Amino acid sequence: MSNAQSLTSLKMLLFSFHATNTIILSFLPLYLEYKGLNGTEIGWVLAVGPLAAIIAQPFWGYMSDKYKTVKYVLLICISGLLVSSVVFFQMNSLIAILLAGFVFYFFTSPIGGLGDSLGQRRADDLNISFGTIRTWGSIGFAISSLVIGQILTAAGIEYMIWPYLFFGTIALIVTFKLTDVKVESDPVQLGDIKKLLGNKPFLLFLFFIMFITMTHRTSDSFIGLYIKQLGGNEGLVGVAWFIGVASEALVFALAGRWFRNYHTLIFIIFAGIVYSVRWFLYAAASDPLHIISLQFLHGITFGVFYLAALDYVTRLIPRLLQSTGHLMFYAVFFGISGIIGSLLGGALIDSYGGGTLYAVLGFSSAIGTLFLTIYHTMKTRRQIRGI
């Protein structure tokens, strides 16, 4: 298979998986509200996903590194996605939704990280920008959010499983055509994982970014409910996601032009500052159109932050442990951060409303950005001293 054909399959995987992901991120809180759950209960359900991710992502990352394959782990996870989603969407009681949701997220949560890990490796092998590959995930996310938002406004939120299964099936089909990774080394052993756990710069970095990633995950979970609080509907939620992810796709597509000009941590700190400003502006909104008009900041925040952080993590860890290291990063970004954000966010929006929630997010982002600035300053000084 030619490089062009293999890249097309990879881009289609990212497109279709993120098209399914937008259905969950954008509309699951509204679907759960339709099922009769309140904000706090919705927070519990949304926290199950990150909880499963903390277990699933390192597990599947380890299996990928041990058997030196991303493709076949993806096939298992996407097959599990299709089967478990059917069960998950049939549940009605809170306990049943929580249990089925854990199984569902156990298979779905590693797919994005594994796809991005494969994309990062293919980009390195072909000497091209990872952003040009990853932007197809954003395009799938953007198109799905806009189209599905309009469909669910007309048909009803209760039918969201059908577009989910449609895009999930496409993801499974194109995965069979992927070019797998080639790692010329011995299979990873459990002892090698200790090297990651003993990598202090890596662990400190993951801790500091959590103050920012938590705010991102909280907004992902509750922006739909906030827009509805301000008087919007599913269609406006879809438009908000479309604008946000379209700007993200543009940032990814142009990454090769801006990404290498400065130290990676400078981009991360810049994105953290913009995150803080963004959340404070959201907190002051009084109309859903205010949120929609500010959604272009999603690309500048998440797009820049994610690309720079993934690149920085890649530099901190050995190639043999790339999948495991990337999924540890994913476990923090979408796992631990998601649990904290879902539980606290659900309670805050239930008790005090979306404005207060976003003000808290603004302060958290500012704290995380300050920590990262100190981290970068100390590392730079040590490098100058030759430590």
Automatic annotation (TrEMBL):
GO terms for cellular component: plasma membrane. GO terms for molecular function: lactose binding; lactose:proton symporter activity. It is found in: Cell inner membrane. Keywords: Cell inner membrane, Cell membrane, Membrane, Transmembrane, Transmembrane helix, Transport. PANTHER family: 3-PHENYLPROPIONIC ACID TRANSPORTER-RELATED, BLL5896 PROTEIN. InterPro entries: HcaT-like, MFS_assoc_dom, MFS_trans_sf. The keyword Transport applies. Residues 7-358 form the Major facilitator superfamily associated domain. SUPFAM superfamilies: MFS general substrate transporter. It is a multi-pass membrane protein. The chain crosses the membrane at residues 12-30, 42-60, 72-89, 95-115, 136-155, 161-181, 202-219, 239-258, 265-285, 291-313, 325-349, 355-375. This is MFS transporter.
